[in-house]
From TrEMBL:
Keyword annotations from UniProtKB, A to Z: Oxidoreductase
InterPro entries: IorB_Oxidoreductase (IPR052198), Pyrv/ketoisovalerate_OxRed_cat (IPR019752), Pyrv_flavodox_OxRed_cen (IPR002869)
Pyruvate/ketoisovalerate oxidoreductase catalytic domain sequence ranges: 13-188
Organism field: Methanoculleus frigidifontis
Protein name: Indolepyruvate ferredoxin oxidoreductase subunit beta
Pfam family, one: POR
TM region(s), chain numbering: none
UniProt keyword annotation of Magnesium present: no
Organism lineage string: Archaea, Methanobacteriati, Methanobacteriota, Stenosarchaea group, Methanomicrobia
Claim: Oxidoreductase is one of the keywords in the record: yes
Recorded superkingdom: Archaea
Signal peptide limits: none
Length: 194
């Protein structure tokens, strides 16, 4: 592969973006590929925006410039809209169908766009939508939504699915390995049907 493959993972505090970036880093190490990553946390403890930059095979800094990401993985539909400018026109977005309405919307009496409006605003992208909450529950835990999303996005990464699954096993707590393996596989299958 020539040049880097840049992945931006976005969500809100508590959704597991940092764990997801750790899984990608572990997969890169297992494949012997250089990787750089960085996280930025905006009031993550209060449900604020969190972004994780992962650059595979890159030679330069850890942060991805707007308009340059190869893949955007959004754990929240509103965060997909907030960070879509990191993708070039026609860029690849894998997003969760669900979103958490920010507290500021209630405090400031703002209106929230519905799913159809958000998806219309993302219409110029190569879009894969996954209902991670339903799939994670099927896998055995709603807390595995981040691994569902990684499974779905794995179809569009330059890393082997087997390597990513081994990295999931290495990064999640031992008692949750079986649930997370299932979450990854179900997410990958869901993206294949989109």
């Amino acid at each position: 592969m020539n040049g880097s493959f840049d992945i931006l993972i976005v969500g809100i505090g508590g959704q597991g973006t940092v764990l997801a970036s750790n899984v990608l880093g572990e997969a890169c190490i297992r494949e012997g590929r250089p990787v750089r990553s960085a996280e930025t946390h905006g009031m993550a403890q209060r449900g604020g925006s969190v972004e994780s930059h992962v650059r595979i095979d890159g030679r330069y800094g850890s942060l991805i410039a707007p308009g340059c990401a190869d893949l955007l993985i959004a754990f929240d539909l509103l965060e997909a809209l907030r960070y879509r400018h990191y993708l070039p026109e026609g860029g690849r977005l894998v997003t969760n169908r669900r979103f958490v309405t920010p507290t500021s919307v209630y405090m400031q009496k703002q209106t929230v766009p519905d799913e159809a409006e958000i998806l219309a605003a993302l219409g110029d992208l190569d879009l894969t939508c996954i209902d991670a909450a339903v799939i994670a529950s099927e896998a055995g835990s709603p807390l595995s939504q981040n691994i569902v999303m990684l499974g779905g996005a794995s179809r569009f990464m330059p890393l082997a699915a087997e390597t990513l699954l081994a990295a999931v096993r290495a990064c999640v707590p031992p008692k949750t390995v079986a649930i997370n393996e299932r979450a990854f596989s179900l997410g990958r299958d869901a993206a294949g049907r989109c």
